[in-house]
Amino acid sequence: MSITVSEGATVAFNRAQLAQMFAHAPGFMALLVGPEHRFELTNPNYQTLIGHRSVAGCALADVLKDAVDQGYLALLDTVYRTGLPHHAESALYAVQATPDGPVKERYLDFVLQPMKTEDGRVWGVFVQGADVTERMRADQALALSEARYGALFAAMATGFCVIEMKFDAADRPVDYKIVEGNEAFEDMTGLADPYGKWVSEIAPGLEQHWFDLYGGVARNGQPVRFENPADIFGRWYDVQALRIGQPGAYQVAILFNNITERKQSEARQAALLELNDAIRDLTDAGEIALASARVLAQAMGVSRAGYGTVDTVAETITIERDFNQPGVGSIAGTLAFREHGSYIEDIKRGETVAIADVTLDPRTAATAEVLKRISAGSFVNMPLMEQGRVVAMVFVNHEAPRHYSDSDLRLMRDVAERVRMATERAKSEAALRDSEAQFRVFAQATPNQIWASWADGSLYWFNPQVYAYTGLAHGALDGTDAWAAIVHPDDVARADEGWSRSLASGQVYEAEFRIRRHDGVFRTFMVRAEPVHDEEGRITRCVGSNIDIEELRSQSAELARFNETLEEQVAERTSALMQAEEALRQSQKMEAVGQLTGGIAHDFNNLLAGISGSLEIITNRIAQGRYGDVERFTAAAQGAAKRAAALTHRLLAFSRRQTLDPKPTDPNRLIRGMEDLIRRTTGPGVALEVVASTGLWPVLIDAHQLENAVLNLCINARDAMPNGGRLTVETGNRWIDARTAKTQDLDPGQYVSICVSDTGDGMAPEVAARAFEPFFTTKPLGEGTGLGLSMIYGFVRQSGGQVRIYSEPEQGTMVCLYLPRHFGEVEDGEAAPEIEQAPRAQAGETVMVVDDEPTVRMLVAEILHELGYQCIEASDGAAGLKLLQSGARIDLLVTDVGLPGGMNGRQMADAARLDRPDLKVLFITGYAENAVVGNGHLDPGMHVMTKPFAMEALGTRIRELIES
């Protein structure tokens, strides 16, 4: 046949042969001719593709509108115009055989091949291809399946990986490579980007049992499931492994879960069960703590565990007993936290301290070597709180650095809680046993009849007094009705009714009825029973008592008769009481005098023994020519003399007769100057706080004695706080009105208060009432004279003030000094000169010495002669005044105050100044009258020194006064 394609050109071909070839082609074929793309030939597969539409001889645009709309006509035009073939793979052709028919999507691989004449002109397009819809759908399904499985493996919480095993020449599994895995695999192992890498590179030190298990699966193809720890990861895994791929590929697929928390929970539960078994029958708190420490140390695999009580003020822990692994030493005892690091601040806040490596943590780096020496290269300290306060601590130590997980801390908390509960149980049981024992002792010892019943009224226990009174055998009264046999018949019904009513209501049972004695006599008893309730408020038993009131009834009648003569008896008793009170006051005076003289005699006998003994030995040594030891015994005698002087000073302070040198003083400045001394004296365990009032008034006081008083009070406060505490020194201005002044035994007016308070043991009222008594002390024998507070009291009272104590047991003590305000300016004090070698006299200088004690007069005169002074002596005031009224040169008068002959030293000096107005006077005294010397009554040019004194100090003072 021939076909005209354009301008008379013809192409001849055997149509039958071509049709036969098209029909048997495996894919679809079509031949389109001319620019209109008319269908010349189609094969059956093409007809199937286009829905068996009739297209022969028709242009494509007329019969395949669906192909035109999807761009296939444009493709044919391009191929026809350019003469270039077009290839397509998996191209979508939405087939719609009829305008309103269904659309069927087909995927095609095809080629549009231009058909050309010999001279190269295109006369048609040959369409050849294959319907790959099923393959495409299979590929899409496969891709979708792979995407789903990929998303599944990526999203699932179970770890998944594929590994490839490596075997050595001896066919032993030695390594494996991570081929692929999911995100959970990376999370559960902590390995980042491990794919394509060998485990020996990314996890060196992995245990051999992993290689053996996976190698066995790769070799024999038998799946396995097991639970194993991987110490290198610090975790436990539940693993399923099966071989995949060809046997020689040695690939293993692994599914696994991290079961570390479960294993830790199981270990905790096992440890807690073991702990419960260990402490179930223990009743001693120390044994409970030790058993708990052992379980904790073994469960956590640490070197040491223990429990201790914490003192946050002293910053210490006291460990009674601890558990230590073999080779690890105990640290039982009291340890200071600061010696082992700065983490005590965390403990005080109630925070758990977990340190994995003491050399790296900034809280312990400086003390790392100290901690390592006690096998604490890492540790956990877990404080235990009671009422918001740290009271104890559970701790674990390990000799090497290690990490402590949340599971470890939970185990410690669980153990601590059980220890607390067991300890409280043990204490409660011990308290119950003690209570029951005390009740039994009380019930046996009391003269009253004691009995007990169950909640239903059945009596089950009586003390011996019941059986002794009734004469019945033990157990004869047990039960609900037996007691009625010993009650008077007329009282049984009333007693029984009240008893039944109390049992039903739970109220206290009270009644009076007659009970028969063993001799048949009935006596009246007051019977009372209290119900005992359990924690839910239910009555479990009743405890009752029978009190014999037969005598009380007789006494009531006697009392009625007594009341008739009461007024007369009151008058007689009042008179007798007044006499007794007077006798008591006299007795108390004598007791105080006896106590005072006894204390003085005791202390002075000791001191005189030291002085006289030393002087006797000095005399013997000099007589023997042995001068080597003289200095030692001289120092001993001087030391005893100084102690005797201190004792007399305290006695004079108590008696308010000491020699005072009052000057205007700023108490705030004085206390600030003492602050460092107080801190050193009280020690680091006492926190000192000074609260100085602004605008504080000055006082007229002997500053040295005030310093001693404040220091004494601070020392007493320190002694009242053996475990440390807070000491506060506070000053303030006080207005004392008439009403308050009367209660405080003061004159109304303005005062300065100096208060020293502590947080110590406090005083009972009876102790506070006796605190100012001389020689009264609560300290152990040999630790106090009992004169401290009495000296303070005497000094303050002598200075016109008052002392008050405010104290409660276990609440602390405050001692307040109230000193009169001084209306004047405070002068800047000058430092007292140091005692040194006394300067010598100028030519002709004369000192007059008046003292009734020959020894003192002799010693003073001797030192004056040695210093070059002329010395005039007199033994009493009259003789001294006579010499003073003479024309002799006298540069300074040195006189005792208390002189015999009716004229004391002050009177003599005043009389002498009538003729010698510029006479300088130095009073030397061991007992000065207030009106003469103390409280600021000295005239200009008059000064005072208190006996005893160093002779060198006397010489220096004389030189100062003559030159002043």
Jot down its keywords.
alpha+beta, 964 residues, single chain, disordered N terminus, six-stranded antiparallel beta sheet, five-stranded antiparallel beta sheet, 35 strands
Description:
A six-stranded antiparallel β-sheet has the order 15-14-13-18-17-16. With 964 residues, the chain is α+β, with helices and mostly antiparallel strands. Helices cover 41% and strands 26% of the residues. The N and C termini lie far apart (163 Å). 27% of the residues are buried. Residues 1-13, 653-657, 830-836 and 928-932 have low confidence and may be disordered. Helix 11 packs antiparallel against helix 14 (406-445), helix 19 (630-655) crosses helix 24 and helix 21 packs antiparallel against helix 24 (788-798). It contains 28 helices and 35 strands.
Summarize the structure.
With 964 residues, the protein is α+β, with helices and mostly antiparallel strands. The protein contains 28 helices and 35 strands.
Major β-sheet annotation = 6 strands, antiparallel
- In the predicted model, the low-confidence regions spanning at least 5 consecutive residues are 1-13, 653-657, 830-836, 928-932
- Class of secondary structure makeup: alpha+beta
- Portion of residues in beta strands equals 25-35%
Q: Give the total of beta strands.
A: 35
Mean pLDDT: 82
Question: Could you say which overall geometry the principal axes of the C-alpha atoms support?
Answer: elongated
Distance between the termini: 163 Å
The helix fraction, in percent, is 40-55%
Number of helices: 28
Give the spatial strand order of the biggest sheet: 15-14-13-18-17-16
Radius of gyration: 57 Å
